[in-house]
Amino acid sequence: MTVLGDYRVTKSSAIRTVQKVKSEWESTVDSVAELIFIVRKDGVILRANRTIEQWGLGDVENVKGRSLHELLHPSCNAKKCDLKKLLGLSDKVLATGETLEYRGFDLLLNRNLLIQLIPISVDEIHTSGHMAIIFRDISQLNLSGSHLTSKSNWTSLKANNVGSSADPNNSASLDAERQSLASPELNFKFIEKIKREWESAVDSLPQIICLVNGAGTVVRVNRAIEHWKLGDVTLASGRNLHEILHKSCKDKDCYLNSLNQQIASVLAKGQVAECQKQDVVLNKHLHFQINAFSSKHSPQSGLAVVNITDITDIRHVELEIGCLNTKLEKRIKSRNLNLQKINLKLKQEIELRKQAEAKFKDSRQKFTHLVEMMNEGMVIQDLDQKISYANRHLLKILGLPRTEVVGRKFTDFVDVDYIDSWVSGGLKNSKSVESSYVFKMKGKAGKALWVKGAPQPLLDADKNCVGSYAVITDINDQIEIEQKLLRTEIKLRSLAKQVLFAQELERKRIASELHDGIGQTLSAIKFYVENNIRDLTETPALSASEQFASVIPKLQGAIEEVRRISMDLRPSLLDDIGVLATLSWFCREAKQASPHVDFSFDKTNVNELDIIASLKTEIFRIVQEAVNNATKYSRAKHINISIKDANKSIHLEVCDDGIGFDYTKVASQQGYSESKGMGLVSMRERVENSGGEFSVSSAPNAGTKVICIWPKEKRAFIDNRSGRRDRRGR
Ligand SMILES: [Zn+2]
Ligand SMILES: [Zn+2]
User: Fold this and answer.
1) Which ligand is nearest to the CA of 78?
2) C-alpha 165 – ligand 1 centre gap (Å)
3) What spacing in Å lies between the alpha carbon of 278 and ligand 2's midpoint?
4) Using an 8 Å Cβ cutoff, are 256 and 284 in contact?
5) What is the CATH architecture assignment of 371-474?
6) Average model confidence (pLDDT) for the chain?
7) 206-334 is a CATH 3.30.450.20 domain
8) What's the CATH fold of domain 1-205?
9) pLDDT score recorded for residue 351
10) Which CATH architecture has domain 573-729?
11) CB-based contact 60:71 (threshold 8 Å)
12) Looking at residue 8, what is its pLDDT?
C-alpha cells in the first residue's frame, strides 16, 4: 500500500502529482528484469514494461490490445497449453484476490519461468478487474535443479500460425481509455488507475525497487522491504538506504555508505551502475543496479531507481555449479588419465596382437607352402566329410583341377569297395596316429589309383573335432615296381629252367659225343686188340709190332677227340694265351669245320690287359654261339669278328653276310626254342648279366650283326660276380 505521501490533492495539482508518480512507477517498472504485463481478465494486454523489448517480443506500444497468449505463443494451437490454462484462472485470481504462482519450462519461449498472476486492487477491498502478470526468467536459478523445481512442465506445443490482430473489444476498451483523457476528471482517475496498477505490479516483485534522490534519500520504495522484514513501506520515505537495510549498523566504512556516491555518479553521467555484495548484516548476497530516472514530464528529475535483488540463491547455485564443475573437472581429469592409461594398454595390446598376427600369418604361410609343396597328398575334410582343402600333390595324384575336388566328398574319389574301410578305418584309427592302410581311389576318368593313408581327427584349440585330415601317399610306382619284380621273377624262373634244360642238352651232347666219338673209337680199338691177341694166339708167327702199330693212330684219334670235346667245354687256351689269341685260334678251327666260309678277326686298340678275366669267357662264349648260329643257319660266305676298345667301353661285333632273319619275329618265337639251344636269349642273358648291353640287327637277306658293349667302369662289379661263378664253374 503506497501512499501519495506529502502530495496534496487539489484537482489540477493532483493530476500532475499522480501523473508524476505514475511516470515514476512506469520508469521503475521499465528498469526491472521481469517481464510485466497489466492484463484484463480476458487476457488482453493493457500495458507492458520495456523488458518485452529485451525478450524480443515486440515494441512496448504495439502489444497493447493483443492477447497475451497470442503474443507469447504466436504459433500455439495446443489444447493443453499451460499458459492458456493459467490465463484461464484469471477469474479465480480476481475473485479471491489471491496471487497465483506457477513455475515451469516454456518450450516456445525456451525459458524456465516463474509466473505470477497478481490481482490489482483499487482500494483495500475491491479489485480493479485487472491483473499484473509477471514473468521471471529463472533459467539460471534452475540450473542446480534443487532450488526451484518446476511444479509442472509446459506441454509441448505444435507450431501453428495464429493471427495476432487485436480484438475489437480490446480496441473499444482502449478507446475508452483514450477518450477518458479528454475529461480532466476521467483523466485523473485514469492516470490514478495506471499508477495503481504499476504500483501493484512493482509491489509484487521480490526485489527492492526504490526511487532515490541525489543525496541518497528514498522517495518511494515497493513493498519488497516488508517481505524482506525491513519495516513498513510508509516509514521508508525520507530515509537513506543504509538506514533502511542496516538498521543498527554503526559501521562508517559500510559498503552501503558508498552507494550514495554511486548514485551521484550515475545521475551525473546518466549511466547504469551495477555491483554485487555479500551483505553480512542481512546475510544475503545482493545485486545492486542503479539507473538514472527520467520521464516525459521530468527528463532531469535528479532521481535514480535502485534495484536491490537477493541473488543468494543464484550465488549458491553458482557456487554449487562451480564446485560441481571442479568436481567434474577432477573426475574428467582422472577419467582422462585412466583413459590414457587404457589407451596406452590398448595400443600395446594392439601392437602385440599385430605382431602375433603377423607371426601367425607368416607361419601359416610357411605351413601352407610346406603342405602345398610336400611330396605327399594332403586332404582336409569338414565334419560333413566334404573336402575343404587339397594340396597340389593330391590334385596331381587325382589328375584333377582344384575346382573339381574342393567341396566334394572325399569318398567320391574312393573306390566303392574301399569306402567302408576308409570311413570306419578313420573312426577306428582316430586314436592311433600311425595307422594307415592301402586303398584304391578313382582319379581322372575313373583311373584306378593305389594310395596309402587314413583319416585323422582334426581338433581345434579346445580339442573339439572340427573335421579330419589325411596324408595320402601315392603307391602306384611302388606297386608297378612290385609287379615288374614279379614279372622279372617269372622270367628268371623260366630262364633258370632253360639253363637247366641247356645244361641237360649239353650233357646229352657230351654224352653222345663221348659215346659216338671216343666210345666208338675205344670200342673199335678194344675189338681190334682182342682180334690181334686171338690172331697172335692162333698164329704166333705173326709180328706183334705190326699188329699193334695200327692201334697208335686210332689212340691218337681218341686223344684228339677228347681234346676237341674239352676245348668245346672250356678252351684252356683262354687262360693260357688270352682271349685275343684264342679268338684267332677259334677262327682257324671254325674255318676247318666250315671250309666254305671265310673268317676274319679285327682287333682295334684292344690290349689283353684291359679285358678282365671274367669277361674273357663271356666274349668267347658269345663269339662261339654267334659263329655257330651263322655257320649252321645263315648260309653266310663271310663272318667277321671285331673287338675294339672305345675308351670307356669294350665293343664286340659278330657280322655275317647270310640270309638274315626277321629279328622281332624270331625274338618272340625263338625265345626258348630247343633247336637253337640258348641262341639269342642266352647271348642276351650273358651280356646283361655281365653288365653289358646286347643288340641284334638283322633282316631277311641283309645279314646279321650281333653287338655287345660292356662299360669299363662296371668292371669291379662284373669281376666279383663273374669271379664267383668262375670259381664255382671250375
Ligand atoms: Zn500457448
Ligand atoms: Zn551498514
Assistant:
1) 1
2) 16
3) 12
4) no
5) 2-Layer Sandwich (3.30)
6) 79
7) yes
8) Beta-Lactamase (3.30.450)
9) 93
10) 2-Layer Sandwich (3.30)
11) no
12) 41
